[in-house]
Every structure is written in C-alpha cells, then in structure tokens.
Amino acid sequence: MPSTFDFMALEGTARRHQLYYTLNKENNTLCRPHWVMGEKGCTPLLLDTFNDFVNLVKLAGWDDGDSNYGKAKRLAGEMVETYEKWVRDVPESLRKEGKKAWESHLKNMLNRYCPKVDKMAKENILATIKDGRFFDALEWLTFIGK
Q1: Cβ count within 10 A of residue 137
Q2: What is the pLDDT of residues 113-138, one digit of tens each?
Q3: Beta pairing class for 4-5 and 22-24
Q4: Distance CA 142, CA 131 (A)
Q5: How many helices (H) and strands (E) does the chain have?
Q6: 13-70: pLDDT as tens digits
C-alpha cells in the first residue's frame, strides 16, 4: 500500500471522534467527509504528491506575494459560497443542474483570474477544486503550515 497523507483541521478536540473514512463506490477508494464537499469527501493524498499539493495555490498564480494568501482566500470563499448555494444545500432534484452551473462558474473564474496559466494546468486546478484538494491546500498553507 502506498504511503498517504491526510489531515483535517478540527475546531476542538471532541471532533477527533467524528473522523472516519467511507468507501466511495464510484471509484472504490476511501474518502473522508470534507468541510466543503460534504459527505462525498476526498481521498487521502499520495505522499509523493505532497509537493504538487502545497504548490496548487502558486500554480494558479494566487499567492500574489502575500503570506496571508488574500487573493486565494477571496476566490476560494466565492467558490465555497456558490457550491453551498447551488449544490450542497439545495434539494436533491436540483443538485445535478446546480453542479453543472457551479463547474461552469469555476471555469469562468479560472479563465478570468488565471490568464497566464496554460490549459493543462487550469484543468488540474479545476479537478482539485471539484474534489476539494484545492481547499485543503489553502487550509494547509494558511493555517496548519504556519
């Protein structure tokens, strides 16, 4: 079994009892609930991909020389807010269309705020936003990494 890396920032020590993994039947991988993506969650990262993980914000060009990552936090906030309103917190019957609209919104954001990033890198960033790893990377850089 390959070495993996995973973390979750807890608001208090009692939350440690709420940590668990479930089997994602779509791709047969273990997942944990994610603070943005909800129950679907995300899989642990392979340890040899850690450098790619911590450089996601830089790849997007959103580190803007600010050690507080202000631009990345603002954009991530918009992504989370639209995900909650359009996908997570809507009736089940509207989620499929809401997710399509959210993904289209993300593509527009990447085109607008990553003009110098090549197409392949944008696709990678988009994939990490959609599965929650981008939010984890930002949390790592701004909270745990300090």
Answers
A1: 24
A2: 998 899 999 999 998 898 888 888 88
A3: unpaired
A4: 19
A5: 6, 5
A6: 776 676 777 777 777 777 777 777 766 667 777 777 778 887 888 888 887 666 668 8
